[in-house]
Write a structure and sequence with these properties.
Helix content: 25-40%
CATH superfamily: Alpha/Beta hydrolase fold, catalytic domain
Number of helices: 6
Order of helices and strands: EEEEEHEHEHEHEHEH
Largest sheet: 8 strands, mixed
Number of domains: 1
Number of strands: 10
CATH architecture: 3-Layer(aba) Sandwich
Shape: globular
Strand order of the largest sheet: 3-4-6-5-7-8-9-10
CATH topology: Rossmann fold
């Protein structure tokens, strides 16, 4: 008999961090003492980000390692203030900084608008690291679903360019991302889900996506000889993303850098059930991030 599906509210969120009154829990920000909200990194109203500093500098740092969060929402909706920022609160408790990014959304703003915005936001933070006390030698990026795909694209693009820069991408954590459509839409679980992803990509691209063709919206397009450490997390019961497809993509990456695939056996897609919001599952990739920090001062 199938186990009952457990929803987001079953995650036992911290009341300090989440407003539990709405049907969908909403992150609180009033407990964070030092923050910069709706910082523009471009001219469009959606080109804004929030920056948070930890309340306690437990590592006595003059500059904080930075986690950049790219929200999900199928490239068409959601916001930097939605539940995707919740894992960043754990990072703040560890004494590090967090930046949550908005980007232009489809269908009004088609690819590459969102991907270019995420890259521009990261570069904005790198360029203003001194102003916001950020350690640009310790940059981490994470995001779920569409944000997971953007995490891969943004992180790989920055990593490929960092030898000519003065920053370092230490690790990425894409959660339940679409990874590699070069193999076609059979990498997506189920006929209905394949149609949904195909339709979503059509809205995002402004044209029907072609099967078997690696396009610049595909993470595999940006894979070079070396990659940053990557921690994939996804649910075995995800109705959209096949665990096997992520594992196959991770297999292509091994030998180029460290890759971990963490499968939550009872998990669905990010935001559908509690599993991506349980402390122990969040801390898996945050501890992975912390193990990659170098020379933080």
């Amino acid at each position: 008999m199938a186990k009952p599906r457990q929803h987001m509210k079953d995650a036992n969120f911290s009341e300090k961090w989440m407003d539990l009154a709405p049907d969908i829990p909403y992150p609180k920000k009033d407990w964070i003492r030092q923050k910069w909200m709706d910082v523009p990194y471009g001219e469009h109203p959606q080109q804004k980000l929030d920056i948070y500093h930890p309340n306690a500098n437990i590592h006595r740092l003059s500059r904080y390692p930075l986690m950049i969060i790219l929200h999900g929402g199928g490239f068409t909706h959601m916001d930097k203030a939605d539940w995707d920022v919740y894992p960043g609160f754990f990072w703040l408790e560890k004494g590090y900084a967090v930046a949550s990014v908005n980007y232009r959304l489809a269908p009004k703003h088609k690819f590459p608008a969102g991907a270019e915005d995420c890259l521009a936001a990261a570069r904005y933070l790198i360029d203003r690291a001194e102003q916001y006390q950020l350690d640009k030698q310790n940059i981490f990026i994470m995001g779920p679903s569409a944000g997971g795909s953007l995490t891969l694209i943004t992180g790989l693009r920055l990593f490929n360019e960092q030898e000519s820069g003065d920053y370092c991408i230490r690790a990425l954590a894409p959660l339940c991302p679409v990874t590699d459509l070069s193999v076609g839409f059979d990498s997506i679980k189920g006929a209905y889900a394949r149609f949904l992803v195909w339709y979503m990509m059509k809205i995002y691209l402004g044209k029907p996506p072609r099967q078997g063709v690696v396009e610049p919206f595909d993470a595999s397009y940006y894979v070079k000889e070396k990659i940053p450490p990557i921690f994939f997390q996804l649910g075995r019961l995800d109705p959209i993303i096949k665990a096997e497809s992520v594992e196959a993509f991770a297999g292509k990456l091994r030998g180029k850098g460290e890759v971990i695939v963490d499968i939550l056996e009872e998990g669905y897609h990010m935001g559908a059930t509690k599993h991506f919001f349980l402390d122990e599952n969040i801390l898996r990739y945050l501890d992975f991030f912390e193990s990659k920090i170098e020379a933080a001062v």
